[in-house]
Write a structure and sequence with these properties.
Blueprint (H helix, E strand, L loop, with lengths): L9 E4 L6 E4 L9 H14 L1 E4 L6 H8 L25 E4 L2 E2 L2 E2 L2 E2 L4 E4 L11 E8 L7 E5 H6 L3 H7 L3 E3 L30 E3 L1 E3 L6 E3 L9 E2 L6 H12 L3 E4 L6 E5 L3 E5 L9 E6 L6 E2 L1
Parallel strand pairs: 2-3, 4-7
Antiparallel strand pairs: 1-2, 3-17, 4-19, 5-6, 8-18, 9-17, 9-19, 10-16, 10-18, 11-12, 11-15, 13-14, 13-20
The structure holds succinic acid (SIN).
The site of succinic acid (SIN) has 10 residues, from strand 18.
């Protein structure tokens, strides 16, 4: 099968604080090296990419995902097995149940602003989310530009977070569920005692050299280490989520959304549980955040 060349790749930046749509490619077919490089470059330049109207098998989704790096195995389901038999790299994000069992994670509720798995020492870099079933309304995914969040911080806040570290409490998921392994930490309020990685508040993206604010998620005992209260943490979150730094996507079947956890946060709207939503997700292997 002939590979698609770089001439096919059309990068259309969105009129938004981040993001570009990639047009002209069929991801079920191979892309030559220059076409792959152009897509990765567009991702670095625009932080998030949307590629519409794709018809991908799980194998094809995995093959395309590898242009962003080596793949991470997906977190196992509640019974410790893979979400999708034969595809350990794939996570299923869904509210659908089969024989009384959830076929995926996150249900139908809101998933608060977060970056994927920041409680890990080496959180995943790219996340690729491919839609197989979508509700008629709700369930949109929003991305927030954390380079801009850093760049637009008032100078006094920039100074206060210089060289500082935050605790990324592992106890809860972004859907508010307790991670089984960390159940003993429920109710912990002292960030020093919370489980999870300690990461710099300002990180440098290794490919772009740009500085991004890195907050993880606002749950459990997450906070800036060494702060007696959450005033600084609250001010950082207010700056990010109350500014004009985000773009939201309403899904159609066959959309692929790709985001960079090193410089974006994301949020998922809730939707009616009487409707079905099913996404397959891959992630690339993580790296320890580089302190600015
Ligand atoms: C996620 O938070 O990783 C999932 C986002 C979504 O379901 O849109």
């Amino acid at each position: 099968m002939q590979s698609q060349s770089v001439d096919a790749v059309e990068v259309c930046p969105l009129d938004a604080p981040l993001g570009a749509e990639i047009r002209g490619v069929d991801l079920s077919k191979p892309l030559d090296a220059a076409a792959q490089a152009a897509i990765v470059q567009a991702w670095h330049d625009n932080l998030g990419l949307l590629i519409r109207n794709q018809t991908l098998t799980d194998t094809q989704l995995i093959a395309f995902s590898k242009i962003f790096g080596e793949l991470e195995m997906a977190p196992p389901n509640k019974s410790g097995s893979h979400w999708i038999e034969g595809y350990p790299e794939l996570a299923c994000i869904s509210n659908i149940t089969k024989d009384g069992q959830a076929i995926g994670s996150l249900g139908n509720g809101e998933a608060i602003w977060h970056t994927d798995m920041s409680f890990m020492e080496e959180p995943p870099t790219a996340s690729l989310l491919y839609s197989l079933e979508v509700p008629s309304s709700g369930g949109g995914t929003h991305l927030l530009n954390m380079y801009k969040a850093y760049e637009t911080l008032p100078d006094d806040l920039k100074k206060r977070i210089e060289g500082r570290v935050a605790v990324h409490d592992a106890t809860y998921t972004s859907a508010g569920e307790v991670r089984k392994k960390f159940a003993d930490f429920v109710g912990t309020t002292d960030p020093e005692k919370a489980p999870g990685a300690r990461h710099p508040l300002v990180r440098v993206h290794p490919a772009t050299g740009r500085k991004a604010l890195y907050l993880g998620r606002r749950s459990g005992a997450s906070n800036v280490l060494g702060e007696a209260d959450t005033a600084l943490w609250d001010a950082l979150w207010a700056h990010c989520t109350e500014g004009d730094l985000a773009w939201g996507h309403d899904w159609a079947v066959g959309d692929l959304l790709i985001w960079d956890n090193r410089c974006l946060m994301h949020y998922r709207e809730s939707f009616d549980n009487g409707e079905r939503r099913m996404m397959h997700r891959t992630q690339t292997k993580g790296e320890a955040p580089i302190a600015a």
